[in-house]
Amino acid sequence: MGRKWNNIKEKKAAKDANTSRVYSKFALEIYVAAKQGEPDPEANQALKFVLERAKTYNVPRNIIDRAIDKAKGGGDENYDELRYEGFGPNGSMIIVDALTNNVNRTASNVRAAFGKNGGNMGVSGSVAYMFDATAVIGVEGKTADDVLELLMEADIDVRDVLEEDDSVIVYAEPDQFYAVQEAFKGIGVTDFTVAELTMLAQNDVELPEEAQAQFEKLIDALEDLEDVQRVYHNVDLGE
C-alpha cells in the first residue's frame, strides 16, 4: 500500500483552494445520487456514501442542500456514469470516472486530454484488471493496534490497517465500507480523514523525472474536465 491518503487529499485541497471545482463536482454527484433514489441518505446508500465523502472534503452544507433540493424538485437533467481507461507516459495506467449529460462531448474531451499530454485511450478492460476496488477509511486519535482490536471485536475482515502520518487508514473490501464506519461510530468516532471507495493499483510504478512531469500534466488535464469526477492511476508521485 504505497499511497499516503491524507497527503494526496492535502495536495488536491491546495490545488482546489481558489476554485469551486471540487464543490461543483460533489454537487453534481449528490444531485445524481439523490435523483436516482430517495433524497434521504438513510434510504439511499449511494447518496449516503457521497455525503460521507463530501464531509471529509468540507463541502459546505448549503451546496449539499441545494443539490438535494434540486433532485427533490424533479430536475430534468439526466446523467450517465462512464468509465474510461487509458495509458500515460511509459505505459502508466489511468482510470477516469465521469458523470455526463453528453456522452459524445465527454468522450471527445477525455480522448483529447490523453492525446495532448502524452497518453492514449485504451479499450474497456485494458487497465482496470490491474486495479482493485477498495474501501479506504481513515481516522485520527487511534493507533493501528486500537483499530485492529476494534475490527476484530466487530468481526470485520479488512485487507490492511496502516498508520500514515497522524491517521490510521483501513483498507477493506468495498462491501465492508459501512461496516467499518459503523464500528468506529460505535465507539464515538464520527469524523473521518478519508472515506472513499476507490480503485487502488495492485502495483505502483515510478517514472523518470521528465515522464513524471508529463504524467502530472496529463492527470491535471483530466481532472480539470467538467464531466470528470475521479481519476485513478498507478504512479507513485511521491506524495
Automatic annotation (TrEMBL):
NCBIfam families: PRK00110.1 (NF001030), PRK12378.1 (NF009044), YebC/PmpR family DNA-binding transcriptional regulator (TIGR01033). Transmembrane segments: none annotated. Keywords: Cytoplasm, DNA-binding, Transcription, Transcription regulation. This is Probable transcriptional regulatory protein JOC83_002997. Belongs to the TACO1 family. YeeN subfamily. PANTHER family: TRANSLATIONAL ACTIVATOR OF CYTOCHROME C OXIDASE 1 (PTHR12532:SF0). Residues 3-74 form the TACO1/YebC-like N-terminal domain. Gene3D superfamilies: 1.10.10.200, 3.30.70.980. InterPro entries: Integrase-like_N, TACO1_YebC-like_2nd/3rd_dom, TACO1_YebC_N, Transcrip_reg_TACO1-like, Transcrip_reg_TACO1-like_dom3, Transcrip_reg_TACO1_YeeN, YebC-like. Residues 79-235 form the TACO1/YebC-like second and third domain. The keyword Transcription applies. GO terms for molecular function: DNA binding. The lineage of its organism: Bacteria, Bacillati, Bacillota, Bacilli, Bacillales. It is found in: Cytoplasm. SUPFAM superfamilies: YebC-like (SSF75625). The keyword Chaperone does not apply.
